[in-house]
Amino acid sequence: DTAVSQTPKYLVTQMGNDKSIKCEQNLGHDTMYWYKQDSKKFLKIMFSYNNKELIINETVPNRFSPKSPDKAHLNLHINSLELGDSAVYFCASSQVGAVGGAGELFFGEGSRLTVL
Amino acid sequence: GQNIDQPTEMTATEGAIVQINCTYQTSGFNGLFWYQQHAGEAPTFLSYNVLDGLEEKGRFSSFLSRSKGYSYLLLKELQMKDSASYLCAVAPSYTGFQKLVFGTGTRLLVSP
User: Fold this and answer.
1) Is B39 on the interface with A (CB under 8 A)?
2) Using an 8 Å Cβ cutoff, are A96 and A28 in contact?
3) Would you write out chain A's pLDDT as a tens digit for each of its 116 residues?
4) Is cis: bond before A66, omega within 30 of 0?
5) Using the beta-carbon criterion (under 8 Å), do B104 and A108 form an inter-chain contact?
6) Which residues of A touch B (CB under 8 A)?
7) B41-48: Cβ within 8 A, 24+ apart
8) CB proximity B48 to A under 8 Å
9) Taking CB atoms and an 8 Å cut-off, how many pairs form between chains A and B?
């Protein structure tokens, strides 16, 4: 069983379209995240949810809207896609207190988005 | 602001020892993580340091000096499969553990 799974793995779409990425974790963690990794491999946090509540929103354009229907799921919807949105989007989860109080991240396999 | 620096790329030979350095300047500190990321795959957790000193875990060790804002990851008895990117990440205390700030990663190439 995959601990953190996200779909789809690959997305190729035209500018201006809307797309969604889904994420599910079966680790029983209370916190989930979306990270973006650009072409230079720089990994940057976008959003974090704790028990379905948004706790971090890192100055991401409001074309990006996360939704957490329950603490095991965190989806990402992107409106009006732009060329600069092309990246790999990683979902992750963690549990407070699991690693020295800080909680290591468990990442999904990533969703590679290409905007043409 | 947050700033995390690592070398962009390093090369080493199978069986050797390599040290990957990371320096950081953050407005708070609640621990430093090292992650390994093979090409096309997800990052995976390697180590966590919150107190000064060396943490050893098999062939990998991680060191932290909070006063110097400095950490390193030491890989011993290098194997070809260690070729990957190594990401240093800091948890700034003002948001606690839930926001990790990543460096740009060090790409390690291990040759025979």
Assistant:
1) no
2) no
3) 679 999 999 999 999 999 999 999 999 998 899 999 998 888 999 998 888 888 888 878 999 999 999 989 999 999 999 999 999 999 999 887 666 555 688 999 999 999 99
4) no
5) no
6) 31, 33, 40-45, 48, 50, 55-56, 58, 90, 94, 96, 99-110
7) B41/A109, B41/A110, B42/A90, B42/A107, B42/A108, B42/A109, B42/A110, B43/A43, B43/A90, B43/A105, B43/A107, B43/B87, B44/A107, B45/A99, B45/A104, B45/A105, B45/A106, B46/B73, B46/B86, B47/B73, B48/A99, B48/A100, B48/A102, B48/A104
8) yes
9) 68
> Which of B41, B48, B95 lies at the smallest CB-CB distance from A56?
B95
Looking at chain A, how many residues does it have? 116
- Least Cα separation, residue B51 to chain A (angstroms): 10
Query: A23-37 burial, b if ≥16 CB within 10 A, otherwise e?
Result: bbbeeebbbbbbbbb
